[in-house]
Amino acid sequence: MIFSACFRFKDLANKATSPTILVARSLSQFRVKRPPTICSSYAHPNGIPLGFPCRRIATFCDKTVTAVTSLDTSPSTAEILAWSRESHREGNVRTRKPATSGVLWRIGVQAQATIHIRNGGRLVDRRILLIGAGHSHIEVIRRWSEEKIPGVSLTVVDPSATPVYSGMVPGYIAGQYQQRDLEIDLSGLCSRSGANFIRDAVVATDSAKSSVRCADGDEIDYDVASIDIGSAVADTDLPGVIEHALPSRPIGAFLRHIDALANAGTATADRPLLVVGAGAGGVEVALCLDARLRASNRDLSPSRVQIVTANRSLLEGGTPSAQRAIERQARARGIIVHRGRKVQTVYADRVAFEDGEAIPCAGVAWVTGPAAIPVTAGFDLPKDDRGFIQVDKTFRVRGVPNLFAVGDCASLQGMKKAGVYAVRAGTVIDANLRAFVEGTQLRAYTPQSDFLSLLNLGNGEAVGTKWGVSWRGKSMMRLKDRIDRAFMDKYR
Ligand SMILES: Cc1cc2nc3c(=O)[nH]c(=O)nc-3n(C[C@H](O)[C@H](O)[C@H](O)COP(=O)(O)OP(=O)(O)OC[C@H]3O[C@@H](n4cnc5c(N)ncnc54)[C@H](O)[C@@H]3O)c2cc1C
């Protein structure tokens, strides 16, 4: 066994033609007497490229337990957590004991290739890549901490280190939650799960090469990957929207800027904050903004929030009982609804409609429903006429056997663009990524036909709807709060 491991290292070193990242798992069974010479591009027998060229090399060897690495440390310092008895520091490479005893290694920003030397001295390398840490993928990451697949690495790429749970955003607007209550500490979650986290955005896919390109130019190869990058907001290409309105997506940016919008202090009943969009997200944002701007629940002054919708009613297409409850709530608070109005242009101080009229405003929140994220234009994948990635019932991208897509970015009959659907899909995508690497059968996903919808009214009450029946009250808000907090606790 020992010889076998040594032989492999030598073998790798001998094949060196250009520098590469090599991370060996440091198990005490292996004793490598010397660090390998800097290793290089190495092709797996089945042709999967394992290396990529790097600019600066650092090497590290723990003589007792042996972790062997050569890695790119630029532009940012990469971090290797190796199972060593002592802490070592050499150049830009830092090693220390892992926080959790179950985690043997983890590599940060620049991790591109991982080679596991396993007990039999056999090289095993299968790489799962998660593109985006949306509501479905965070469940895959959490489950990885409970059950890893030997010889398989899990890497997560997301531009945000703290993805936001949208279900609690209206509550944040109303002042019911702090920002930290809504944020998932992604690098902490990955670190606890033994997954690699790369903070970057994927901007292109090359499905033939099983590779993606990130915004900083790096390429990441995978054996199987899944995309869960959510959605953007519709119609942000209308004149003035990007310049003068606050789109509800990306949700992290919405969260960062909504305070400025709500606290501007310039909104009046005649020059209100306008919420454009009257789906579930739009009405929650409007009602919660209204609650925040009122001094108290007893404040009966005219609302400083108004809603603009191209439809005739709030929650158009929703359950009639929920529509009635929300319409009543808007009426009771004096929230004016501009119905059947299509925005043409957003200006700094007003919104102009297609019919030539305009209304003055102090600010605009743009909550017009989901659209495909523009970056998916660079994905060489089949898409529907709205730009969402076409998948089959197992979430496999049509015509691309080793690529999956899930959540809002995926186009699947019956799957709505809502967090509750993405959350439920998490267990299926987890099972299917595992089935793919283990060569077992994929599971089909059946979208739920009904679900409990809970809309936060911002005043301590919520409207709950299930089986076509709606209830309004504080008990509904307590239930929503319990469900949302329990969801967040799973990922802490
Ligand atoms: C204000 C508001 C309130 C809402 N409230 C509810 C609610 O109460 N209940 C409900 O069911 N739904 C709600 N929704 C809808 C819900 O937010 C979405 O349906 C849900 O977030 C979709 O989840 P997802 O997994 O598809 O992606 P998301 O949860 O949106 O996550 C996408 C992730 O991908 C990352 N990403 C984006 N681009 C890239 C890239 N190029 N490369 C790598 N990573 C990338 C992002 O940083 C993010 O972490 C609400 C939406 C809004 C706007």
Helices, strands, pairings?
Blueprint: H1 2-14, E1 22-23, E2 57-61, E3 68-72, E4 80-81, E5 88-90, E6 93-95, E7 106-107, E8 116-117, E9 123-124, E10 126-131, H2 137-146, E11 152-157, H3 169-173, H4 179-182, H5 186-193, E12 196-198, E13 202-206, E14 211-214, E15 219-221, E16 224-227, E17 232-233, H6 241-244, E18 245-247, H7 251-263, E19 273-276, H8 280-293, E20 305-308, H9 320-332, E21 336-338, E22 343-346, E23 350-353, E24 358-360, E25 363-366, E26 370-371, E27 389-390, E28 403-405, E29 410-411, H10 419-438, E30 453-456, E31 462-466, E32 469-473, H11 474-490
Parallel strand pairs: 10-11, 10-16, 11-12, 16-28, 18-25, 19-20, 19-25, 20-21, 27-29
Antiparallel strand pairs: 1-3, 2-3, 4-7, 5-6, 8-9, 13-14, 14-15, 17-26, 22-23, 23-24, 30-31, 31-32
Flavin-adenine dinucleotide is lined by residues 131-136, 157-160, 163, 166-167, 169, 201-202, 228-230, 248-249, 251, 281, 284-285, 373, 375, 407-409, 417-420, 422.
